[in-house]
């Protein structure tokens, strides 16, 4: 660099230093206001985590953002700023499907930021139980994957514990990687959770045909096994590779380019209204011709857009099904209220699992 440009950089850096001091001051001013809100909440029994408000803060800013910073930066900076402010009110305890650096862990960090205490739990049912016993404030559980469909263990637990609420949803782009500390031709066994193996089946059979596939409880557990056993590989996240010190032989080996998992944050309350919300329900209908059509007609006549519907075998009664659905709108919206009243009359049983802000697509 020439002396002139050296000086120019110095001047620009001095301006950055000045701005950073102002930003720091503003961040702390903002945090002090959040602390005041926290005091009012603790006096009135209010709930610390307000997902609708958090989403409102971020989407207001994204609407106003004129760049050059991209939305992903604004979102991640504000996620941590809000997370830090929230932790000044109380450090929330969050259970996720472990071990560390599983996709559930990534979803928990994406929703709550660093200002929480994250607790890895061994299986989905234990997450529901930890939330129900109030050992943790919230749990993060997978709901569905764009390639593999619903996560049966999660739906099964909603049937067992319909009193728990979905207070937020998180969408995570799932990229799989082949992790190994040996060469590709030396791999004898490949570990991962069943869904991840199935999402990469074509790639694996084409590129590592000599290896056998072995199912384990999570992608991170697979990475741990690779650390211990020679001639093995794992299908897991980039973060798991870094955490467990394993080389990434190939990135993005998923068969479908658009591979995404939707997670639910479960707690004991649902979320306020943002204007861009969804409501999730679980229902049973009479075993008679046309009863599902009657339900669907309720959505049609009230102009409510269905975003998900699943039929799920009911374990307590052979041949009977429970339906899960979510749709646009908040339980407080007039047309959703009307739809829910209609459902109440038509269904044998109806549980409202919660209203929550629609999660943004991952940038
Ligand atoms: O508005 C609130 O209720 C706050 O507590 C403030 C705040 C924020 O930092 O903006 C923090 C935590 C909540 O989850 C939502 C928003």
Task: Walk me through the structure.
This protein is an alpha/beta fold and 363 residues long. The chain folds into four domains: 3-89, Chorismate Mutase Domain, subunit A; 91-174 and 259-269, D-Maltodextrin-Binding Protein, domain 2; 177-257, D-Maltodextrin-Binding Protein, domain 2; 273-363, ACT domain (Alpha-Beta Plaits), CATH 3.30.70. Helix content is 43%, strand content 25%. It contains twelve helices and 15 strands. The chain has helices spanning 3-44, 51-64, 71-89, 103-112, 124-132, 152-160, 194-199, 201-207, 219-228, 238-244, 291-301, 334-346, and strands spanning 93-97, 117-121, 138-145, 149-150, 165-173, 177-180, 189-192, 212-215, 232-236, 248-250, 260-267, 277-284, 306-313, 321-328, 349-357. The strands form three sheets. Strands 1, 2, 3, 4, 5 and 11 form a six-stranded mixed sheet that branches. Strands 8-7-9-6-10 form a five-stranded mixed sheet. The model has no long low-confidence stretch (mean pLDDT 93). Residues 34, 37, 49-50, 53-54, 57, 82, 85-86 line the site of prephenic acid. It catalyses: prephenate + H(+) = 3-phenylpyruvate + CO2 + H2O; chorismate = prephenate. The record marks 261 as: Essential for prephenate dehydratase activity. Its EC number is 4.2.1.51, 5.4.99.5. Residues 280-357 form the ACT domain. Residues 3-93 form the Chorismate mutase domain.
